[in-house]
Specification:
Layout: H1 2-25, H2 30-61, H3 67-87, H4 99-120, H5 126-150, H6 157-180
Helix pairs in contact: 1-2, 1-4, 1-5, 1-6, 2-4, 2-5, 3-4, 3-6
């Protein structure tokens, strides 16, 4: 359970940073904030679940997924987070919101959840996978909400975004190493 909370937090930091960029770049109404929060949480849950189910299928029908493979996948995702933090130079993002914007944004901040679900949650029961995916989505929704709340008090958005990516990447790299060792 603690692992899912840590993984959920690490994955949600990307959504946190993106929401902060959206919040400082746009004067968002409550409806827009709510739809972003729902989109980020929903797609984080969905992609975590789908990744875990794909991992279950591959593990049961094609080849056994080992802790080494899982650890390597998590480390790669962590390195991508770190790289994103290093090259992230846009602080505020200006968007016109429509249905496709919510969908694309939700998927884009959640694509890494697919890999994490695939490499960490495979082999679990349907109830465990579903519960874990929902926990990841709830954590993402909460951190997205928190970013909208604090965005007005933060002076250096690019610094917060950069360190959110560094923290999330570091957590994932550490978890990947723990799986390998």
């Amino acid at each position: 359970m603690v692992n899912i909370l840590v993984i959920g937090f690490a994955l949600a930091l990307d959504a946190f940073a993106v929401a902060m960029g959206l919040g400082c770049g746009n004067r968002l109404r409550l409806k827009e904030k709510s739809l972003i929060i729902l989109s980020f949480g929903f797609f984080q849950s969905l992609l975590t679940f789908l990744g875990a189910e794909l991992g279950n299928y591959i593990n049961a029908n094609l080849f056994n997924i080992t802790n080494y493979l899982s650890g390597i996948i998590i480390i790669i995702i962590g390195i991508l987070f770190l790289k994103e933090g290093h090259y992230n130079d846009e602080a505020c993002v200006y968007k016109k919101f429509n249905l496709w914007t919510y969908i694309v944004l939700g998927i884009s901040v959640s694509i890494d959840a697919f890999g994490v679900g695939f490499s960490i949650l495979y082999g679990g029961s349907m109830a465990y996978i579903l519960t874990s995916a929902i926990i990841v989505g709830v954590i993402t929704s909460f951190l997205t909400w928190a970013s909208f709340y604090i965005v007005n008090y933060v002076k250096n958005f690019s610094l917060v975004e950069k360190y959110a990516a560094y923290l999330g990447g570091s957590i994932l790299c550490f978890l990947g190493l723990v799986l390998i060792i």
